[in-house]
Design a protein that fits this description.
single chain; 304 residues; alpha/beta; Rossmann fold; Elongation Factor Tu (Ef-tu), domain 3; six-stranded antiparallel β-barrel; five-stranded parallel sheet; 34% helix; 27% strand
Length: 304
């Protein structure tokens, strides 16, 4: 491999603090004629060493790679994480992975970085090993947005609490769910409004409620403003969680089969109405709030 500038991490969610690490790697590589590179792991190390405490993931590996490349880094090395990797001491990890495999000359990490067996290595350890093995260690401080320390766990908490607007600030994009459009129970098209029903494998879902969203057809790129309900459809005595999206623009052409739903802002809690007619009237009021949102903030969500 070409000599490289490397950053190391799980990078789940690929939030603004991760992007700062990528920016520093790209800058270091450009200044020193190195190859900018990201080293990440699959599966998440916690699922191997502490499976009962492994976090629910914000992004799949495929999504993570795409987002890292969007941030400007083409080379993403995914290290399969298994027990033998977990047993490597900090020095063994540096020798076998950073030096022998990646030819690291500059290593950029966050100030809370830990590595090696039982997370025994930290930034001080990495700096000392860099002096011994001939690479420079650069430490990037924590990043804050709106008074919140940016981390994957903070994004996870915000999304699960329904605060998708603040989560978007930490991610620098709306949080999204992807999946297949599946048949619903036919209630919406007959008694309220027709919706697209999303079946997703995502591990982190927004709290139950109604959200202003953007929906994209993953097959042909069509996009619509929309509103989305995450919940159990209590008006119809539902018992299974559903994610139902109503498009604000007419659906021209075939119905999408695979969609991405971006969550922009929470509108209200999900609640039970006395009749389908009352629910339909509330949906139309929600539509009005969503249309006002998109008029005010036109251009806030970039087309990707």
């Amino acid at each position: 491999m070409q000599k490289s500038a490397v950053t190391i991490g799980n990078f789940d969610g690929v939030h603004v603090a991760h992007r700062e690490l990528f920016r520093c790697v790209i800058e270091a590589a450009r200044e020193n004629g190195l190859r900018p590179l990201v080293l990440t792991f699959d599966p998440h190390p916690a699922s191997v060493v502490k499976p009962d405490k492994a976090p629910r993931l914000l992004t799949t590996m495929e999504e993570r790679r795409a987002l890292i490349r969007e941030a400007g880094i083409e080379d993403v090395v995914v290290l399969p994480f298994a027990a033998e990797i977990a047993r490597l001491s900090p020095q063994e990890f540096v020798e076998r992975v950073l030096i022998e495999r990646l030819q690291a000359r500059i290593v950029v990490v966050g100030d809370n970085f830990h590595f090696g067996h039982r997370q025994s290595g930290d930034t001080k350890t990495l700096t000392e090993l860099g002096q011994r093995f001939g690479f420079e260690t650069r430490i990037v401080g924590a990043v804050k947005r709106r008074g919140h320390m940016v981390s994957s766990s903070s994004v996870r908490r915000l999304v699960e609490a329904g605060n998708v607007a603040l989560a978007a600030r930490l991610l620098e994009r709306p949080y999204s769910l992807t999946g297949d459009v599946v048949p619903g129970e036919g209630v919406g098209s007959k008694q309220t409004v027709p919706t697209l029903n999303l079946q997703t494998r995502a591990e982190v879902l927004p709290a139950r409620g109604v959200y202003i969203t953007r929906t994209r057809d993953l097959d042909d790129g069509r996009r619509w403003n929309s509103i989305t309900n995450v919940g159990y459809r209590p008006t119809f005595d539902g018992h299974t969680l559903s994610i139902e999206t109503f498009l604000l623009q007419p659906l021209k052409g075939p119905s999408p089969k695979h969609i991405q739903v971006e969550f922009c802002r929470r509108v209200r809690d999900e609640r039970k109405f006395d009749s389908p007619e009352e629910l339909k009237a509330q949906i139309l009021r929600d539509v009005g709030r969503a249309q006002a949102f998109f008029r005010r903030l036109a251009g806030w969500i970039p087309a990707r």
